[in-house]
């Protein structure tokens, strides 16, 4: 189980300072065609798993008395919905809200909780369905003229996990190349 795996990892590592929740699934399905089973699956992976791992990690950080950092992977889709992405967008909006609530509740324990909202990222997950025309179209939406590399998102995670972000909590940080600015 997730609980057993996390508890074993925390024990093997001698504690936990940083938790990055980075599991996710994406599927394009028109709103009127989404089954409740598909909706539940997307939410189980994209939102419920983050709740569970955040609870486990935060409890361990509180028990250690040392505080820590929790970084949740949300999405630009959680701020700006798109056709065919009702379940994905709603699940990522849930991650953003969960992050804000966790920040409010866990701050007293020295735990910072933030989320990252990537835009289009050149990941392996999307490589099978991404066309060169789509890359060109999406790149043109960014003031920077390109899509994100995984390293762009990793750099934000490293920042949020560092002491440089000690006064940053409850935020949904965009890594969109300027595609969205709110």
Strand and helix map with partners:
Elements: H1 2-13, E1 18-21, H2 36-64, E2 68-73, H3 86-106, E3 111-118, H4 124-127, H5 132-140, H6 150-161, E4 172-175
Parallel strand pairs: 1-2, 2-3, 3-4
* Tally of individual domains: 1
Spans of at least 5 consecutive residues with low confidence: none
* CA-atom Rg in angstroms: 17 Å
Q: Please state the average pLDDT score.
A: 95
Q: What is the name of the CATH topology?
A: Rossmann fold
Order of helices and strands: HEHEHEHHHE
Shape: globular
Strand order in the largest sheet: 1-2-3-4
Helix share bin: 40-55%
The proportion of strand residues reads: 5-15%
Ends: how far apart?
37 Å
Helix/strand-derived class? alpha/beta
Supply the CATH architecture.
Answer: 3-Layer(aba) Sandwich
Q: Tally of extended strands? A: 4
CATH class identity: Alpha Beta
How would you describe this protein?
A four-stranded parallel sheet has the order 1-2-3-4, with helices on both faces. It has one domain (2-175): NAD(P)-binding Rossmann-like Domain (Rossmann fold), CATH 3.40.50. The protein is of the alpha/beta class. The model has no long low-confidence stretch (mean pLDDT 95). The longest helix is centred in the N-terminal third of the chain and has 29 residues, at 36-64. The chain is built from six helices and four strands; from the N terminus they run αβαβαβαααβ. The chain starts with a helix and ends in a 7-residue tail after the last strand.
